[in-house]
Structures are given as C-alpha cells and as structure tokens.
Amino acid sequence: MRATTGRTPGPGRGERGLRSEHRALTEGFGVHNLPFGVFSTGSDAPRVGVAFGEHVIDVGGLDLPGAEALRASTLNPFMALGRPAWDAFRVALQALLRSHPAAVAPHRVPREEVRIHLPFHVADYVDFYSSQHHAENLGRILRPGTPPLTPNWKHLPIGYHGRAGTVAVSGTPVVRPSGQRQGEDGPVFAPSTRLDVEAEVGFVVGVGSSTPVSVADFEDHVFGVCLVNDWSARDMQAWETAPLGPFLGKSFLTSVSPWVVPLAALSAARRPAPPRDVELLPYLRDDDHPWALDITLQVRLNGELISSPPFAQLYWTPAQQLAHLTSNGASVRTGDLFASGTVSGQAQDQRGSLIELSSNGAEPLMLGDGTSRSFLEDGDEVTITATAPGADGSLIDFGTVRGRVQPVAG
Predict the structure, then answer these.
(1) Which ranges of 27-164 would DSSP assign to H, the alpha helix?
(2) Coil, strand or helix: which one is 310?
(3) What's the whole-model pTM score?
C-alpha cells in the first residue's frame, strides 16, 4: 500500500512523525474509511464513535453536522437522517482530520481501551443466497445426481427472513444449539454435531421505504456495510428444510462486526457484476448501476487462514437484493440488515463454509496443528476479516467478526 499525502518533512518534522501521519491517512482505518460503531469506556453510557487508526473518535463531542444524532447509544438516529447528512458529516470530519488533527485529539480513545456494542438496532434481518459457487457446491452435496441450481436461481435473488433478535456483536459466545435432527432410528432432540460458519457481507439500511427501491436508488437507502457470520447447524437445517427454508438451524445466532463501513468509502471498490447467461426482468437489470464490490474476506479457524472468499464474484449484487426484497411492496426500515449469503469462489480455498471446505465431512479440512475439522468443535474460534480498495490507493478495513464455540447450555 502506498502513502498518498505526497509531503516531505518540513522544519521540526521528524521521520517518525511523518510515518505516523502517513499511516493515519492511508491504512485500513484511515481517513478514506472512517467506519462507525458504538462504544463505551468505564461506566459511561454507550455512544457512537468513528474508528480512526488505533483510536475511536467520540464524534458526538465534535462540532460537526449531525453531531447531535451521534450522541445516541445506537447509529439509528444518524442513519435516519439520509445521505445528504451522511455525506456532510463525512466531508467535514475528513477535512478536520487532514487540516486540524489537534482539534480531534481530545476526543480520541485508544481502541484497545473501549468496549464495543451492537452498532445499530436491528429492525429486520434477511439473508440471501447470492453466490453461484456456493449454491452449486451445496446443490452437488445435498442433491447429488440433479442440477446443482434450482430452476429459479438465476432469475431472482433467493433469501429467507431471519431473526433480528439474535443478531449480536462480534465476540458474543457461540453456544452450541440443540434441536431436532435426523437420528439413526428417527428424529431426536440433541445438540448439533454439524455446527458451521457462513462468511458473509451485510448491508445496513439507513433510510427506510414503504415503496419498492430500485437498483438505481440503492445508495440513497443503504448506509453502510459490515461483516456477518450466519452460524448454521447443518444437521438441524437439513432435517427442517423439507419443504420450507431455514429456521432453527440458523436462528440461534448471527454475528456482525462492530464497525459499519460507510457505503461512500467503497466507491473505488465498485465493479460490474459477473456475466449472466439469462435475461433478467427489468426491475433487476443493473447494467447502468453496477454494485458488485471488490471485497476479499479472510476466514480463520483458531488463527489459521482456511479460506479467502471473493465477494466480487457474487451473481446477485446488494442493489438487486434490496430491489427484490422491496419489489412486492414490503417496507424496509432504518436498521434493517440484509446479508449476502455465504460468499464462495470457484477455488477450493475460496469457499466460505465448512460444509463446502470438507465436502460435507467426506474430506475433512486438515489444519496446520495436525488436527482436522469437518464441522466446528467446542472451543474453536472463528474470525472473519475483510479488506477492499479505497480512494487514492488506500485500503479499507472492515474489522473483525469473531466467535468462540461453547458447549451446549446446561
């Protein structure tokens, strides 16, 4: 990554100070990113902050547009203000950090000293199924001998309505769920033995709508982007998903990263969608409004990198997902979260779930410590991180969504 300030040391400016300035302006949590979260220190109430370098800026204390809404304990009041307010705040904070960093210094808290909270109140949660590679992998695993994609898959973004109440911030323990699954002699109620991860990207609605949102209007409604791990109990899911969709196999926990990257920070990451071989209906056509995003995820199991899924390869873009979600008149509200579904690429090391990486347990994933995994064991920790290209050659860091598996409760 290259520095973008172009400055040379002036009188009294040391080399160390210049390097520090360059890092603050160009690294993953730099001035081109400025992701939002909710934090607290000590016994203070939670409030909105912006991650910058190794610090969190307590932005409610700054004299900037929208500061009053940022004094809340959730991002929802600020997100409801709309894009003109989001952009005005972003431009003003960037200018302040570039030109008057001393004015921000009293409002900075080291990130290592803060407690993070769920950054927004989740109004509704929808999970899509938008990766063709993932859908084909699962089709081959779960429906051998039949076409891997269902006939409707390339015509509409498939999704299911999840549980908003079990969306939790990174670091929340992953308690192994119990439920009904197929046993040797019929159904049993027992702890899941096929607990899995799903590496996903989530989109947070800022401005709601009671009418359909077109692909062209996507950026007027979506505030920002976070990382999602939609933990899945595959044995429970397989038993209950006949004939309807996921239910208890996915409703026990969905983890999100603590920092919401503004959509405006991802302008340099926009890409055309992958080629499509079917004619899309008019409301899903996106040739003039490309919203594929060049985001690379990294999935680690107990610290070891096991997959690097490429988000740009998803067949359905988030703009198409939102257009389809609202196409029947369904409303969206401030704080709605919709996720991409598991992100998987074509290569073996780009698959975003263990059911794919281990071929449903037939080919266990070998780890560097000599152990293997088909699905998650108690004590396993999964972390998902991601990066994207930012403006002026910078890097956008999405932070981390993390979870450690704990034994079944009781």
Answers:
(1) 76-79, 83-99, 101-104, 132-142
(2) strand
(3) 0.93
- Euclidean distance between CA atoms 117 and 42, whole angstroms: 13
- Selection from 317, 217, 204, 314 nearest residue 257 by Cα: 204
As annotated, the active-site residues are 134
Residues 133 and 208 in one domain: yes
Q: How many domains does the chain have?
A: 2
Residue 210 near residue 331, CB atoms below 8 Å: yes
In a domain? residue 8: no
pLDDT in the model for residue 23: 58
**Residues 192 and 300 occupy one common structural domain:** yes
Is the residue at 170 inside a domain? Answer: yes
Q: What is the pLDDT of residue 6?
A: 35
Q: Buried b / exposed e across 140-162, counting CB within 10 Å, b at 16+? A: bbeeeeeebeeeebbeebbbbeb
3-state DSSP helix/strand/coil percent for the chain, to nearest 5? 25, 30, 45
- Collapsed DSSP state (helix, strand, coil) of residue 318: helix
Q: Calculate the average pLDDT of the chain.
A: 93
